[in-house]
Amino acid sequence: MPSSRNTLARRIARDKYLLLLVLPCVLYYIVFKYVPIFGIVIAFKNYSLFKGVWASDWVGLRYFKMFIEGPDFWPIIRNTFLLGLYRLVFGFPAPIILALLLNEVRQAFFKRFVQTVSYLPHFISNVVVAGIAVMFLSPTTGLVNQIIGALGFDRITFMVEPSWFRTIYISTDIWQHIGWGTIIYLAALTAIDPVLYEAARIDGASRWRQLIHITLPGIVPAIMIILLLDIGKILEVGFEKVYLLATPVTYSTADIISTYVYRVGLSHGNYSLATAVDLFTGIISFLFVITANTISKKLSEHSIW
Amino acid sequence: MKQRLQAFDIINIVVLLIVSVACLYPFVYMLAVSLSDKIAIAKGEVWLWPVNFNLDNYRYVFEDGRVMKGYRNTILYVVLGTSTSLILTALGAYALSKKTMVFQKQIMLMIVFTMFFGGGMIPTFLVVKSLGLVNTIWAMVLPGAIGTWNLLIMRTFFSGLPSELEESGKIDGLSEIGIFFRIVLPLSKPVLATIGLYYAVGIWNNFMGPLLYLRSQSLFPLQVFLRNIVLSGELMNGEASASSDLQIVGDALKFATILVSTLPILCVYPFIQKYFVKGALIGSVKG
Fold first, then answer.
1. What percentage of chain B exceeds 90 in pLDDT?
2. Which of residues 226-255 of A touch B (CB under 8 A)?
3. Quick count: other Cβ atoms within 10 Å of Cβ A252?
4. Minimal CA–CA distance to A91: which of A166, A163, A34?
5. Does residue A18 sit at the B interface (CB-CB below 8 Å)?
6. Which residue is closest to B110 within chain A, CA to CA?
7. CATH no. for A62-299
8. CB contact under 8 A, A123 and B98
9. For A23-66, what is each residue's pLDDT tens digit?
C-alpha cells in the first residue's frame, strides 16, 4: 500500500492549485448542505434552544408518530400531492403544445416575438405574480370579477374559497412557465432532419399528418426526460407562491408540506416536529425520483442516470 | 389543399396571439390603471390606455420611504450576492472540469447528491443562525451562494474549451491559477454573463430567504416590502390622505408599486433574453 499512498500524495501535490480553487466551493457544500443534513438528527431529539443540537435528549420516533397520527397528516400530504399532480397533468403538456405551435410558424419575426413575450413571466417574482393574481381576482375591483359581473353572473370571492385555490395556483404556474418550458423542445425540434418533411410532402402528407408522424416522434426523447424529471418533483411544490396565495381560510386545500413545516417550525418554534415532517416527506420524494427512473428504464431507454 | 393550409396557419397565429396577449396584458392593464385618474378607474373606463393621465400614484410610491429603502437593499444584495456567487461557482466549476484532478469524482458525487437530498428548512436555518448570519446582509448572500445547476452549466462550458490554450499557458510557466485568471476567464465572458444574470434575477426575486433570515425592517429587500404593501394590505402614505374611493386608490397604488419594483427586469429583459436562453440550452444538453 505505501506505493498507492505515495501516488495519492503526489497527485495531491500535483493538483494543489486546482484543489485550492475548488476549496471554497467544497467548504460551501459542507457548511450549507452537509451540516444541515447531519442536523436532521433533531427530528429524533427533543430539540432545546439552550442545549443545542447535540446535547438535546433523544426521543426516537416520537415526532414522526405525532405527525402521522395527528389530524394534519392526511390533509397536508393530500394537498401537496394533488397540487403536484395537477401541475403535472396541466403544466407538463402546455409547453409541448406551445412549442409545436411555434414550430409551425413560418414568419421568423412573429415566432421570435411570441417567444420573447412568453418567456417574460418566468422572470417575474412570485410576490409579483401572487400580487397580480390577488388584485385581478379581487371580488370588488378585480378585473376578472368586473368581467364576470358585466356578463351578469355572480361575483366570485376567489381568494377565500378553498375550492378555487388549486385552479389559481396551477393557472398562474402555467402562465409563469409555459414559454420558458418550450426552450428545450424547440431545441429538440431543430435537430429533426428536414429531409423527412420533404419526403412526407412528396408522399402528399398534410401538415397535420407531418406534425403527428414526424415532428412529435422527433421530440419524444426530450418529452420522456422532462416527464421523468417532473414526476420526480411531484412532491416538491415550491414554498413561496403557496405561502403568498394561501390564507388561513383556504388552508383546507392550500396548506402543503413546506408551508406547514415553516409554520410549525419557525412560527411556533417546534423545530423537531417540523424537521421530522420535512425528513418524512423528503424520503418519500426521494423514492418518487428513483421509482420514476426505474419504471422509465424498464419501459424505454430513457433515464436521467 | 392550399385553402386548408391557410386555415391551419391562421388558427395557429390566432392561438399564439392569444398566448402573447395573456402574457403581456396584465402589465399593460396595471400600467394603464396606475397612470389614470381615480374617477376614471372607478367608472371602469380604464382597460388598455390611461385616462386623464397623471403620475400621482408614482409620486406616492416614491414619497413612501419603504420602496426606496427596499430598492437600496435589493441592489446591495444583488451586487454583493452575484459577485460572490460568480466567483465561488467559477472557481469550483473550473477545477471540477479537470477530469484528472485528484478527488474530482468524489467532489462531484458530493455536489450532485445535494440535488436529490438536503437537510431541509429547519436544519439549514439552525446552521445559518449558529453562524451568526441571521439578520445580517450575509444571510442574503451566503446560504444560497452556489446553485448546483449553475455550477454544472459552467463546468460543461469550461470542459468545452480547447486544451491547447491551457497547454500554451503552461509552457509560458503559468500555474493553474494563472491559467484560470489570465486565459480561461477572459474567454468565458458569455457564460459568466449568463450565469451572473441567473444569480442576479434569483436574488432580486428571492422572498423566502429574507422571510426566514431577516428580522429588521432596515434590512428588508424590495420583495418583502412589496408583499407587505400588496398582499398584507399595509397602507401607503397616499392612501391615508385619499378620502372616498379608498380601494380604487389603493389598487392603483399597488399596481404602481408592483410596476416600480418589476421595472428593471421589464426594461432590460428584451436585451438580455438571449443570454438566458443560451444558459437554458447548455443546461438541458447536459441534463
1. 52
2. 229, 239-240, 243-244
3. 12
4. A166
5. yes
6. A29
7. 1.10.3720.10
8. no
9. 999 999 999 999 999 999 999 999 888 888 888 889 999 999 99
Measured CA to CA, the distance from residue A138 to residue A155 in angstroms comes to: 9
Cell of A16: 494543489
Contacts (Cβ under 8 Å, ≥6 apart) of B145? A28, A32, B81, B84, B85, B88
**Cβ–Cβ under 8 Å, residues A302 and A86:** no
**What is the number of other CB atoms lying within 10 angstroms of the CB of residue A85?**
14
Please judge whether B91 and A14 are an interchain contact, meaning their C-beta atoms are less than 8 angstroms apart: no
Instruction: Give the H/E segment covering residue A58.
Output: strand A57-58
Closest CA to B212 of A42, A72, A257, A261: A261
User: Which segments of chain B does DSSP mark as H helices, in order?
Assistant: 2-34, 38-42, 56-63, 65-96, 104-113, 121-130, 148-159, 163-171, 176-179, 185-187, 189-205, 208-213, 222-226, 237-241, 246-286
Q: What are B3-7's contacts with CB under 8 Å, separation 24+?
A: B4/A206, B5/A206, B5/A207
pLDDT 10s digits, B206-217: 999 999 999 999
| Residues B42 and B248 sit within 8 Å (Cβ to Cβ) | yes
Interface contact flag, B205 A125, Cβ < 8 Å? yes
Domain positions in chain A are: 2-58, 62-299
Q: Nine-digit cell at B279?
A: 444558459
